[in-house]
Amino acid sequence: MSGPHPPAAAPARLWLHEALSAAGLPAGAGPDEIAMQAEGRAMRDTLAADLATLPGLHLTLALGPDEAPRPGGEAPQPGATPLARLCDAARRHDAVWAIAPECGGELLAWAEAVAAAGRARWIGSRPEAIRRATSKGLTLAAWAAAGLHTPAPDQAPADAPWIVKPEDGAGGLHTHRHPHRAAAEAEAARRRAAGEAVRVEPWIAGEALSFSLRVPPGGGAPELLACNRQRLHWRSAGGRDVAELGPVDSGALDADPRRPAWAGWAARAVAALPGLAGFVGIDAVLSPQHGLVGLELNPRLTSAYVSLPPARRRALLRAMLADFGLGPEALPGTRQPKAEGAAC
């Protein structure tokens, strides 16, 4: 007869915090803010529903001030800043999974605070990788040094289309295309004079793609999860074209025979930015002249996750949580190293 079974381990307490839904919409929010919050909330709710199917987790959801109470949700305390709220949650939970746009440095500040405190595991990239990925300039420089094609201003004709985009933007917001470089530089000068950090780049014609990857912490080989088609539209306004991103067709190009080559390209892009971990999204253009041209990297969950098949999403979560020492498939003793930063 077998002896008594050891007591079951307590479920890991996981705090899920999506920045835009947790903050609520500001008064007078415009269409861009409303659309971005809806996208963030869709990511949060899909991820929460998938996490709820996995054993060994106790999930708490950061609700916004404009949301009704729900089981497993926690409303914000009056007057608490987003960082203070996250730090308070990190002290009460075993792990933190945060989703935030790179713009404004919010995701970086959160990662630094949670990592430096050393109490909760941070499900995602390390601060140094987020810092590089937040800057399009640093990202593109790292990729160019690794031999990957990027938009090259010194090799593009001045009378071809050029674009102006935020240095740390997200979702294609405030990205404008001009018929020639001089017009793009003039807009960039006006925006810089107003205190905005922007980039001027040659427009790369081709098919807009994105890649969704699972990156194990500590430099493990990344897994290419999906090859996605990006729906990018341009609206004419005031002598320029304004970018408008449509829904992502997740996995639309998974059967493409070039997928193995794309996986190798994506692995090189990840290796060029040490410290990436968890879910990572890469935006690129498939150029007829140069092949894949890297544009930017998102060191966090992206909207492509939402439209992946449910079974694939849940298999991904089991593997990703195991990478961070959580969930039913985690190896005992797995723990993230601490990082520098302002502790919670």
From TrEMBL:
Entry annotated with the keyword ATP-binding: yes
Origin: domain of life: Bacteria
Pfam families: ATP-grasp_3, preATP-grasp_3
Keywords, in A-Z order: ATP-binding, Nucleotide-binding
PROSITE patterns referenced in this protein's UniProt entry, alphabetically: ATP_GRASP
A GO term for molecular function: metal ion binding
The keyword Zinc is assigned to this record: no
Domain ATP-grasp as annotated: residue spans: 130-325
Protein name: ATP-grasp domain-containing protein
Lineage summary: Bacteria, Pseudomonadati, Pseudomonadota, Betaproteobacteria, Burkholderiales
